[in-house]
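Consider the following input, taken from an annotated entry for Carbon-monoxide dehydrogenase small subunit (Roseovarius nanhaiticus).
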Amino acid sequence: MSQVTMAVNGKSASGTIEGRTLLVDFLRETLGLTGTHVGCDTSQCGACVVHVDGKAVKACTMFAAEADGAEVDTIEGQAAPDGTLNKIQQAFQDHHGLQCGFCTPGMVMSAAALLKENPKPTEAEVRSYLTGNICRCTGYHNIVKSILAASGQDVSQIGGAIAAE
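Applying the prediction step yields:
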């Protein structure tokens, strides 16, 4: 057993863990931050994406001990303290970028990382960036549209199905 301490959504958090404890399990089970989802346990679905020191990572592939001393941001830290959605969350709501909602936290966190790296991505760049995130409900069209809208781009001309690449 060992002790880890990290800043999670701007607040100090610590706990006693086994060496094999995954970051996703530490966030969900120790800290009670259940917005980070476990979808596949194999790093393929992207439902567990969080930011560690500003970089998007799949929390199911990282040990909690590796995040000791790090800044970790989860979906719970994206909205303002008063509950106001951030621009990405609002765009997902406005453009129907979610359906069942299971993949949404990972999609929002991936979108935030993309827009930090590339503030005005093309549709193809958004689709390429999301290859590590799986949505079984939406067909991705409105997710892509939501991310483009969050980047400040006009999405009024985007309609109907978008051809897969």
